[in-house]
Prior knowledge:
Helices cover 35% and strands 24% of the residues. By secondary structure, it is α/β, with parallel strands linked by helices. Helix 7 runs parallel beside helix 8. The protein starts with a strand and ends with a helix.
Amino acid sequence: MHENKGKIINKSDNIYGLEQFADDCREMGIDLSQKQLLQFEKYYELLIKWNSLMNLTAITEHEEVLKKHFLDSLSIVKTVDMTKIHTLMDVGTGAGFPGIPLKISYPHLKVVLLDSLGKRVKFLNHVTEELGLEDISAIHGRAEDFARQEKYRESFDLCVSRAVANLSSLSEYCIPYTKKNNLFISYKSGKVEEELDAARRAVSLLGGKVEKVCRFMLTDAGERALVVIRKEKSTPKKYPRKAGLPAKEPL
């Protein structure tokens, strides 16, 4: 048995290896319950199990997943008060990052996970069911297509993406989902200045403005940056362009 800042964590509870993770989260202002820690551990187990069948992540060591996927996903709290966010769209979610860690930590969120690969969406649906998460759905398709649907367009308090794409393309994928006066936040690693400069025109065309860039070290996992874009005007109806164009011909 291990005492962790007033909380007792039992080895038999399957979360004995999460003490440091819980401490790191607490330092960011996220106080996870025993139930939430168990959900994170179950998520890890499912990720590793399914990763043997399909390519979900190259990072598989327990401690590395906790830092580089889970903690990284939650680092958005450095830029926005998640208790005031109600609806969240995660574009190009992959194995569920950052959407699922945010949903576990902030159960009040209504979350949509969007991915272009059907096998990953099947995994995401299995995870949300196994973890007992409600008000979260995974949809299969292209960001360009769903952004044109009335149900999703300009319907979210916050749109996020950890997808590996240039910021110009990501802005065209994501800003259309965001309500006016709300945020799109892009997770980036390392230096972003050049990419940011190249994306400013696209961000403006799409109705957004770069509000700030939050740079920080993610424990010992390296340098990170969160690019915060506020949507000041409605996105013109012609954006996003048809599937494939944002990546091939960034604005």
